[in-house]
Structure formats: C-alpha cells, structure tokens
Amino acid sequence: xxxxxxxxxxxxxxxxxxxxxxxxxxxxxxxxxxxxxxxxxxxxxxxxxxxxxxxxxxxxxxxxxxxxxxxxxxxxxxxxxxxxxxxxxxxxxxxxxxxxxxxxxxxxxxxxxxxxxxxxxxxxxxxxxxxxxxxxxxxxxxxxxxxxxxxxxxxxxxxxxxxxxxxxxxxxxxxxxxxxxxxxxxxxxxxxxxxxxxxxxxxxxxxxxxxxxxxxxxxxxxxxxxxxxxxxxxxxxxxxxxxxxxxxxxxxxxxxxxxxxxxxxxxxxxxxxxxxxxxxxxxxxxxxxxxxxxxxxxxxxxxxxxxxxxxxxxxxxxxxxxxxxxxxxxxxxxxxxx
Amino acid sequence: xxxxxxxxxxxxxxxxxxxxxxxxxxxxxxxxxxxxxxxxxxxxxxxxxxxxxxxxxxxxxxxxxxxxxxxxxxxxxxxxxxxxxxxxxxxxxxxxxxxxxxxxxxxxxxxxxxxxxxxxxxxxxxxxxxxxxxxxxxxxxxxxxxxxxxxxxxxxxxxxxxxxxxxxxxxxxxxxxxxxxxxxxxxxxxxxxxxxxxxxxxxxxxxxxxxxxxxxxxxxxxxxxxxxxxxxxxxxxxxxxxxxxxxxxxxxxxxxxxxxxxxxxxxxxxxxxxxxxxxxxxxxxxxxxxxxxxxxxxxxxxxxxxxxxxxxxxxxxxx
Amino acid sequence: xxxxxxxxxxxxxxxxxxxxxxxxxxxxxxxxxxxxxxxxxxxxxxxxxxxxxxxxxxxxxxxxxxxxxxxxxxxxxxxxxxxxxxxxxxxxxxxxxxxxxxxxxxxxxxxxxxxxxxxxxxxxxxxxxxxxxxxxxxxxxxxxxxxxxxxxxxxxxxxxxxxxxxxxxxxxxxxxxxxxxxxxxxxxxxxxxxxxxxxxxxxxxxxxxxxxxxxxxxxxxxxxxxxxxxxxxxxxxxxxxxxxxxxxxxxxxxxxxxxxxxxxxxxxxxxxxxxxxxxxxxxxxxxxxxxxxxxxxxxxxxxxxxxxxxxxxxxxxxxxxx
Lengths: 338, 319, 322
Known about the structure:
C: Rossmann fold
C-alpha cells in the first residue's frame, strides 16, 4: 500500500492517435506507466517511437482536432484524459512543469526572461508583482544563474544555450510542481553544459521530491540519471525495468541492439558498429499486429514471436514484450549490409 | 539608439544627393522643355530663345543643378512653368489634400486588415479563413483603376451616396461645414483604396499567426497554464505583428505612389494628380520637386520602419 | 610513416567586430586563432570541439568556402588558400564535404540522380550513359537501391539522405573528405550505419577524413589522431590513446568527464569525478589560460602528443602522474 501512496501519475492503456488522411493512427499504443515520488523515469527510444507523444498526452498539449487520446492518465484521482481545458490550465505549470528540447525556440523572443518565469507565478499564485519578482530571483539562484538580477531583464537571444535552458527549468519549477516532464532537455546542448543541466535536474528532484519523466534518445543520459527506464519502439513500450537491469541485463532484442550500436568513448576495438537492419516504420506503415520489431530481426524464426505480443514480468519489476527474447541472438558478425 | 538614428540620417545625405542628381538629369533628358508647347507658327523664335536664356535653360546642367539645389535650401522650389505660381505653394496645397486622404486610408487599411488577418490566422483553413482568402485574391488580382471605377459607378453614380469627384464642395462654409464636406469627398476613395492595400497586411498577419501558433515558445506558454486567449493575444499576436511594423514605412510610401491612380480617377486635387499633370504638361520644376519629395518620403518611411522595428523587437535593438 | 595529404599551418579566420559611431572595426572574433595540424593519407583525423570552438570554421576554411584570414593550407606542396593553386591542383575535386543537416544540404527540387551527378558534371566530361552508370555505382557503394535516382530528397529517411550526401561527396574520387558532424542529427542505429559506410569507403578508396564532431564517442570510434579545439585554438593533440587515457589539459579532462557513460554501477563515482574536474577547471583559470583568457601555445610531450600549457605546468602535471 505504501507503494501505491507514492504514485504521482498512473498511465493506463493510453492510446494517442494522430489523424492522417482521415484516419487515426496510434503513435502511442497501449502505454502503461507509473511515475512515483522521488523517481526519475526515463522513456527512451529513437525518433518516431512515440516518446514525445506520451509527454504531450500527459500535459494535454496536442492539436485537439487531429489527435485522439483514450485511456487513463490518473493524477490524484483526476483523469487528465479529456480534462476540461480551464481545469487543465490550473494544473499545467502548477502541478506539472515541462522542460523542452530547444531552449532558444522555447522562450518568447520578445519578452524579458524574468517576465516569462513570472508569468507562471501570475496564473498560479496570489503573489503581487514584487513578490513575483523576488521569487523569480530566488528561482534564478536555485538554477544556478550567475547574475539573477541582471538576467531578469535580459532577452533570450542575449543568453547562452545553457543559461536559456536554466530559464526554461526555472519556468518549469516555479510553482514547485510534483511532476516535471523533461522532453530531450539536453539534446541541443554541449556535453559539458549537458552534464551541468542533468546535475541540476537531479538536485531539484532531491530537494522537491518531485517525480521527473525524462524523455530522451541518449542512452548515456539515461544511464547517468534515471531510476526507472521504459524503452519504446514503434509506439509501444518493449522493455521496462530499473536502470541497472536495463543496462546490465537487457532482454528485449531492440534494447540489446540499441546498446550494441552505441560508439563509446571507453570502448577499445574499432570494429564495425552494430547496425539494426531496415528502418523504423513510419506511423502510417507501422505493423499493427504481431511483433513490431520482428521485421528488423528476420533471422529469428517467426515461431519465436507471440501472435499478439504482451508484456511479461520476467523477474520482479522487469517487463519485456513478446517471448522472442528467449531465442534472440545477434546475427553473426552482422556488419554493413543493411 | 539616437546614435543609430543619427547615423541613418547622415547616410541619407549622400543618398539624397545621388537621388536629386538622377532626378534632375532625367528631367533634363526628357524631350522638349516648357517652351516647346508655346511654339506655333505665330510665335517669335527670338522671344522663345530669350525666355530660355532668362530661365537659365542654356546653362551647363551642373550650373542649373547647383542653382536648383541652392534655391531649394531657401525653400524655393522654383516657379511652375505652366501655372506660374511657386512650386512650393502648389505642392503644399496638394500635399495637404493627399495627407488627409492618406491618413484616412492608412487608418481604414489597418482597421480592416488587422481584424481580417487575425480572423484568418486564428481560423486557419476554416470557412472564415477561406472567405478572407477569396477576398484577398480578388483585391490582389483586380487592377486598382477597375476597382475604383466600379466603386464610383456603384456608390456614386447608381446609388448616389458619395460625390464623384473633388475634395471639398464650393458651397461648404464654416469649419465644420468644410470638414464635413472634405470627409464626405474622401470617404469613398479612402475605403476603396484601403481595401486594395489590405491584401499585403492581411497576408503578413495571417502567415505570422499561422507560423507562430506552432512555435515552441507558444507551447511553453501553454505548458505554464496560460489561458488560451492570453496565449493568443500576448504571445502569438505580438510576434506576428513584427512584419507589419516592418512594413509600415512601405505602406506609407506605397500610398503616395498609389495616390496617382486614385486621385486621377476621382479627380481629387492631391500630389498624385499633380504629378501626372506635371508629366503631361512637362512642368519640370514641379515634376523634379515631386520626385525628390517622393524619394525623401521613401527614405524616411524606411527609417521609420527600422526605428519602429528596433523598438518592438529586442533582437535588433541597438545599444 | 604515412604520407601527409594536407598540412594546416598557422591558420587564422577572424571576423571583424564593428562598433562605435562610424562602425569601424574595433576588434575581431577569433574563430580560428592560429592552428597547426596535418592529416595523413587514408587516415581519419578527429577534430573535437563544443559549439563556438571554431571547428566548423576550420572545416569550411579547408574546403575553401570560408576565406582564411592568414596562414596556409598546404596540399601537394602548394598553398591552397590561393584560388589560383586550388584550380591548378584540382583541389576542389579532390576535397569534398559532408554536412550535418542532410535535409538542408540537398536541393529539395532536384532528383537524386542530379544531386549526385552535380560534382561529376562540374569536374568531368561524361556522356549521359556514362554519368548514369557512375551514379548507379555510387548508390551501390552506399547501399541504396538503384531506383533511388528518380526520387527526391524528402522521400528518404535521415540516414538514407546522409548516405546520399556521402555518395555525392565521393562522386569525384576525392582524396580528402571533410565531414562536419555527419551523424549528429541521426538516431543511434542509423548513425551506426553511416559510420560503418564511411569506414568501408575509406578502406576501399583510401580516402582521408577530417572528422569534425562534438561527440567524443563517435570521434574515438572513427579516428586515430585527434585534436581538441577550444576558443579557436587547439588545446590538445595526440593519438586516440593519449587523448582518452592520458589527457593533460583540464579542458580535455572536462570534456571526457562530461560524456554520459553507460556504466550504471559507477555512476556516482563518475559524477564525483566530474565535479572534481569541474571544480579544478573553475578554480584556477590562470593556470589553464593566458591573461587574455586565450589558450596557450602547444608544447610537445611526445612525438605525437601536444598540449597547450606553459612549460612548468606541463612538468608539474607529469610529476603528478608519476
């Protein structure tokens, strides 16, 4: 029961489909996830796997005309799916904060950065203008801004990429949200800046006990920061476990292939990198039945796959989709042929 | 800021010198001169030659140019060859008329274009947007004079709501009477003219809104819990207005050149009509003065645009 | 010892800063501030740097799209910063470039055939049939189906487009390819494909690469010799082992410690190590940079290893290591 108490967000059977030529295609297909207090949950996958779709669905920021969301996203007995927009505006920025990928385009070029942080406070607190200003300075200090007072009156283009991302983080944490969603927060940054921003996120989380959903394509970032990991392929979660298990004892063929295709600074041999055959299917051409990854590992016999792959709890808290992992092996010395 | 403005003014000096020389030389290169028209079998060739000598038309071009520029500094734009009144006062009378017509047109243009642009951008691809697009295509495609003549035919001739020509009725008296008569004469040309000029502004605004709607910073604003109407007015709209601000100077100078057609069609005694008249009458002094004036206004219009843009857009704000 | 294909000597690219009332040049942005290195035949030379380090400007200066302010780029004994020499040597044919963003670097209105054939048309006189055959060969090399020639860039995925970019770059049988962040925009599995292709093509045609990247993992995978660039200068030059195992300059150490490692077991240690290096870096800037905040000149440590530190600092570092 204790476990249950700490659950911040409970996503069940989430389907998010986009309209393409009159039909809806699920970009996130039957997603089940929970985010707990004090936890960094990483959703990792390549572009088009549906990881950002999940983020958009949670925070309700999608084109309502061309998107269909079904299932449940439960936050404190409140279902965020289909929630009234006025109510949602009270939650966004207040209970759920969001950090985006590109800090330059994420900030309004015509507004002073301090005012952009203060705007969040304006809509969610009773603070007067002075108090808001003081709180922004406090936030700028918290996110490690070198000169908070001066920075307040600056415009986004006057700040470096790292400082801009600190502004975006200040916006996200302004109202001390319980949930922070970070969508590729360091992808547009240099490695040294990336390290600083990730450390900052960890610090914030430790202080506020919030839960962070970290969406990224970078396995290194996941290994350094996450507690729990969900690996996604073609709209589905294919493997889910704690971070140690994912990296030290991965089971799903996709997780294993991805880890193998990573060039590492501390790897010794300069042999060919592992290549996953074929390409990620587009949303319209995604197989909707059978194992979606089967086409990329054709040397594994069809009999190894389940007809309708489901998640199996192979050990406590380690879930793998399909049974094919049992028979999976890398194609010997599979090199360039793609 | 003032430094940049001052620098821009200084840069305008060589631009103006080159412009005035070009204007002067072009006028000189045109065939004929003000006395050509007077030549007839009865005219005294010696008299014409004497007049040419008196008016200095036989001097070197640069002597004439320097004299022209020198006089200009004293507010003397020369004497109109045709109407025999000082060009300065001739232009002044007309400029006042054009100024009022242009001002009314600008106000009407923005009053019409901004709501239209916002509606089209906000309801992108819906019926409102499509209707506005159709309207835009029509005003864009139909030549101005056809549009004006149709307008006159419909509103003045058929319906009799507005006068067909002129700027103020001769019988009007008293301050309010004259003002009313002026407005009454201006309203139809201004509306018709404004409708034609809205096209670009509507397009700019619509495209701006459509582009900005999907920008990341709008998503950030929404993620902060900012209500949708505030997101639109504060974030989307302000960014979408930038191109219009940049276009403001052009609009003003564009109105001046466009005024030739509208003023001719409505026989409205403004600068545009004066310009066309002075071309057909080969009234050099008036013509050169007008071209120079249009040139200066264009340069000023660009300067105003740049200054306004640097005020509203911090990215190009100068320290 | 392998033959050097290209030598960069004291290359500088400065961009003027204008200010004041008369808009006069008051200072320069030292994008590339006097760098030296040489690339050997058939090798991949890695150039690492963060954004704004001047690495891309260096690449552009080498292919000649950015004019060098001073310094020399020696190819076959002649200085190719002179347009005359470039022409004489056919330098523009021998040196090609691969860009980061494959979408914007391929003309969207042209078919793949024309895109790949463009450099061939510029430098060779082939009949239509010969040209088509050559394009097919090139597509074959990068593993693209032969019907690709009729398609447009947008019909391909990012990885495929980058392979088309590679095909275009190798179309003229170049001796050197400058690859500026060729895989930064790609997914992991696609990056692996492109990197493998680049290696295979290198072996087959004995091409040299100047591999420019911010990604230390990728550079290590591709290169033997590496230079680290920072504030327009080289802070450390060495073999792969020297750079990754015995980094001398604090900046190199900082970069290495900042790479996220797939090593969950030791992630707290890694973080502590990273914080130590960062503290050391912040603590004494005077030790690492000269009084103007610029990188020191390079000092030689071994035949292949150079570091930008004052002599006494180098000795102190070496002592510490022993």
